Amino acid sequence: MREIAERLAAWNDAGVRYAVAVVVSVRGSAPRAPGAAMAVSAGGEAVGSVSGGCVESAVYELCREALDTGGTVRETFGYSDDDAFAVGLTCGGTVEVLVQPGPFPASALTYDEPVAVAHLMDGPGVLTVHASHHTGTTGRADVDRAVVAEARAMLDAGRTGIISVRCRDDVEAFVHSYAPPPRLLVFGAIDHAAALARQGSVLGYRVTVCDARPVFATPARFPGADEVVVDWPHRYLAAEAERGALDGRTVVCVLTHDAKFDVPLLKVALRLPVAYVGAMGSRRTHHDRLARLRKAGLSDRELARLRSPIGLDLGARTPEETALAIAAEFTAARRDGTALPLGQINGPIHHDRAAVAAAQ
Q1: Parallel, antiparallel, or unpaired: how do β-strands 161-164 and 134-137 relate?
Q2: Does residue 317 surpass a pLDDT of 70?
Q3: Residues 6 or more apart from 68 whose CB is under 8 A from it?
Q4: Does 83 have pLDDT greater than 50?
Q5: Rounded distance, CA 256 to CA 281, Å?
Q6: Where would I find the XdhC Rossmann domain in this sequence (predicted)?
Q7: How far apart are CA 33 and CA 36, in angstroms?
Q8: CA end-to-end distance (rounded Å), the chain
Q9: What are the DSSP E strand ranges found in 121-165?
Q10: Computed over its alpha carbons, how large is the radius of gyration of the chain?
């Protein structure tokens, strides 16, 4: 998409009219995933692809139609039983394509900052949503607020797809996130780590399990993880930070509860700009760990970032319940949640940290 964005940015600068077609949903086997795009200029130039060749000609004509009418077009393409060579997907799948005339906020996509672009599915309106601000409008303030909040949550998770707008039952938007999923780093190859890896995967994280002991850190023991790394935890975390693979969405969970692993690892983790750092252990282990970390040079401010004993008080007993308690805590931390029962608090159920900050 970056190549297309650079071309669209050039068209914007030159005042060239164009239309953009985006795959918004896929069912069954299809050559391209949601977010695949093709753009067609008023002069007939095409860039990008929505199907790898199956329906390019038909989508090209839809873009030309959008340029002529200035309106939004939605079209579904699937396999034709009557004629396999008719317009359709011979792979047997179905794709839905949304076509809109430009301009498109292409310049935002040429930067490295994560961004989500939200298109109204029926009608004009494009919003460019960043973590702390947004540009563009649908023309309706209530729809803008709802779409921005949902788009920001999808951007945070690195997800792309169609959303229903909460305040308007008849309004849908397609959100395309230009960001990788957030990372969940689990240190300690134990049963609780396996359960937490599965929980993190369900929540949309890219999960890494790391342990220095090769006999325990194996992919077979952690099928819910995207990767299993054999390395000293502090060395691995420092290396990931050095190569820029961590960000303000990253969650670090230390489950080793062994000082020789915990202290060097937490010394690194608590000085990184990550979203959450939690460590497993009893209260006695926690107090001993704090003393060791202070001796290692960490300040009270740095130690205040540590969530330990890790997790919320759910009365958890099993590894799966413990994983749920941990996930609940880091979700609340990342979303500015109170972690209280909703029945005990007032105000909106769904809230957005940027909107709250802007109102203060």
Answers
A1: unpaired
A2: yes
A3: none
A4: no
A5: 8
A6: 184-329
A7: 6
A8: 36
A9: 126-129, 134-137, 161-164
A10: 24
What does the alpha-carbon distance between residue 49 and residue 276 come to, in Å, rounded to a whole number?
Answer: 39
Residue 86 has pLDDT above 60, yes or no: no
Residue in 83, 71, 70, 29 with CA at minimum distance from that of residue 52: 29
Distance CA 53, CA 55 (A): 6
Amino acid at 28: G
CA 227 to each of CA 160, 197, 208, 209, 279: distance values in angstroms, whole numbers, following the listed order: 23, 10, 5, 7, 21
Q: Which of 52-56, 77-81, 134-138, 241-245 has the lowest mean pLDDT?
A: 77-81
Residue where the block lists tokens 């069954």: 28
Which tokens hold the place of 21?
A: 């077609």
324 in helix, strand or coil?
helix
Any bridge partners for residue 129, and if so which?
A: 116, 134
Res 60 pLDDT > 60: yes
Q: Which two tokens stand for residue 177?
A: 């996130």
Q: For 318-354, give one letter per residue: b (16+ CB within 10 A) or e.
A: ebbebbbbbbbbbeebbeeeeeeeeeeeeeeeeebeb
* DSSP label at residue 335: H
**What's the predicted TM-score (pTM) here?**
0.66
Residue 308 φ then ψ, to 5°: -160, 140
pLDDT class of 358 with cuts at 50, 70, 90: very low
Residue 34: what pLDDT?
81
> 3-state secondary structure string, 115-132?
EEEEEECCCCCEEEECCC
What tens digit of pLDDT does each residue of 119-141 get?
887 766 788 898 888 988 888 88
